[in-house]
Amino acid sequence: MQHLSRAGLVLALAMPLGALADPSSSDVDALRREIQSMRADYEARMQALEQRVKAAEAAAAQATASATASAATAAAPVTPPPPAGDPAAAAVASTGGGASAFNPALSLILSGGYTRTSQDPAKYAITGFPLPPDAQIGPGTRGFSLSESELGFSASIDPWLRGAASIALEPDNSVSVEEAFIQTTSLGNGLSLKAGRFFSGIGYLNAQHAHTWDFVDNPLAYQAMLGTQYGDDGLQLTWIAPIDHYIELGAEIGRGLTFPGSDSSSNGAGMTALTLHTGGDIGDSSNWRAGVSVLNAKANNQTLVSTNAAGVTVNDIFNGDTRVWVLDGVWKWAPNGNATRTNFKLQGEYLHSTRNGNLLYDVGGIDAFGDYRVAQSGWYVQGVYQFMPRWRVGVRTEQLDPGTPSFGLASTALFNDYRPRKNSVMVEFNPSEFSRIRLQFAQDRAREGFVDNQITLQYQMSLGAHGAHSY
């Protein structure tokens, strides 16, 4: 800057002199050379200063990164390097990440409401269908109540596995683990393996959590033959065919922990299941999915509560095998595939259960014992229509067939041939994709001789990270 000031002074003095006399060309050239020299010196100094600033910034960033890496290394276990040639591992490694990369996605589903019934929920039963005494069936409790809320965790573990858990917070202040499993992410060839506790993939509704149901409760067929929803501890292998048409095959093996099985504490498997689902598009506005599944479960000294032909509650003990077949179908419609404004869903399932073994009937009373076999079935059909954004209406009808048990000469005297049935309607308002308010009315004839008119006002709110629901 000092050199520039001198040059400016020289120019200022030279200009009036130039007006009086004609300077020589050598003087002008000298001045030009001096100005160019000062300009070059100035630019060199500025470049040197810029380089010093960049070097200082880089040093500060490197120091911060080193401190963060040291803290993360001290807090987390060392992860072995991925095998060479693994594209999934390379993709994860290339993304970098910091301490926040180890945080799981958290979600909380808050659910509750008000229920009014014309019959006492504590006496609820499904005539002709023996169930464990702790089976969660019926409309629940009367009045205001906190329904089952769900706390969810999920995250990638490494390039090969992910983990997820769903913790159920029950209205009676108890806590239970609905699902807790690990699942592979890179087996390839359409294969996926799951290990832990999970809802079985049989049927359509069974694998879905309660907050995704279109009605307040699961159908009677699920309650009577699967204890509302079948979950188990075990392994599940699924395969999706690498073709344009959707085909998924599944196989499961498990402990047989819940109804229709029971925990036998044996080394062998207490449950096996096979599933097949297929589906596709119909034009631009419709799509469908259909499937067939079979569940095999073993029961060992399983306590059951049933109702005899006189309407009296009795306690039984069952040992044997149960096989449940499930046929399911779903059809969805939305104009040009856009479901944001209006859409319609039609779904239905048919369940057929066969129990074969021996039964100790009316423990502490008649104490009748003998071979026992019964084939039972049930179905439901429901439709849900979104007629404008945020508003949906739905209707469901369902019925059960208890079959005719084979239990010696006392079959007709001890058991009932009444066919339980139920009809439900609902209207639903969704202020956003994270909230739902539903009003449902149901006329429940599950128990012979009683008509239970049930009115339920339900709310469901989703907090935190929550993934997309299945089809």
UniProtKB/TrEMBL annotation:
The keyword Zinc-finger does not apply. Transmembrane segments: none annotated. InterPro entries: Porin_dom_sf. Residues 32-66 form a coiled coil. Gene3D superfamilies: Porin (2.40.160.10). Residues 1-21 form the signal peptide. Keywords: Coiled coil, Signal. It comes from the Bacteria. The keyword Coiled coil applies. This is Porin. It comes from Variovorax ureilyticus.
